[in-house]
Amino acid sequence: MSLDDRPAAHGMLPVDGDTEVYWEEWGRADGVPALYLHGGPGGGLGRSAYRQRFDLDRMRVVGLEQRGCGRSTPHASDPSVPLTRQTTAHLVEDVERLRQHLGIESWVVDGVSWGSTLALAHAQAHPQRVLGIVLFAVTTTSRQEVDWITEGVGAVFPEAWDRFARHAEAAEIGYRRGEGRLVEAYATLLESPDPAVRDAASWEWARWEDTHVSIGAGGVHSDPRWQDDRFRHAFLRLTAHYWSHDGFCDPPLLDRTELLRDIPAVLIHGRRDISSPVVTAWELHRRWPGSQLVVDEGDGHGGASMVQRWRAANDALAGRFGG
């Protein structure tokens, strides 16, 4: 690892009982503070490529690995780790605790995919702590969105969805298509005491994930991260948990947009995003006069062109708040 690949600071922050979350910091200590919230739930920070979406000569960029994933502990890949304190409200509390720990008064908040749900929840809970928002692949994790990504989009990929649903039906847990939510069936399978059941369910969901994000991404490719059992089990266990509870967002985030009225925002979304159709970003923009909607006609659930727009949005906010 070169010096440029080392964060300026990093650490483990105790947040709740034996729970600690990993954080890292890049850029100028006196720069415009910015928080990056990763996707998933359970995606982690990876190799920290997110920092390239910010001008580190002008910004102080903080990355947080949400509880249960990445370097945060305890890790959700361990089936003995309970998920009772895994809710969006707990994650928002973690974000606020980190802000206080770092002595940051307010910051620009960036959220990607699921991270955009968390960014909105944080901003609605603490609007005075948010300078501006950049959302990439916008989601609010409403029931409608969850049911679409786990069932409705099967109309586009019927062969892959049939396999996804048949696995849950064959597991003899009482699920039958049309008689229950598939996401709840998989949440049950991923909590099974039988490690073989959990492993098989994680691989089926991984295949489904690779399929529904394929449009705009050059076709179906297996995400290499799935080969890491620890990553795969934590990612999909957490995803099933949060999605089966509609993101723990009650009332829905779209019904609380008045709390965001004084916060500038850029919402970046791909027209070809089948996983999360652009209607969610549009509805959020329509209810949030201070937001700018940027629809990339060529990209899906992320892509090179969207990333360029992401960097431009952060550059604009750095200029606005950089004094």
TrEMBL record:
One of its GO terms (molecular function) is hydrolase activity. InterPro entries: AB_hydrolase_1 (IPR000073), AB_hydrolase_fold (IPR029058), Peptidase_S33 (IPR002410), Pro_iminopeptidase (IPR005944). Its EC number is 3.4.11.5. Keywords: Aminopeptidase, Cytoplasm, Hydrolase, Protease. It is an enzyme of class 3 (hydrolase). The keyword Hydrolase applies. Belongs to the peptidase S33 family. This is Proline iminopeptidase. It comes from Nocardioides nanhaiensis.
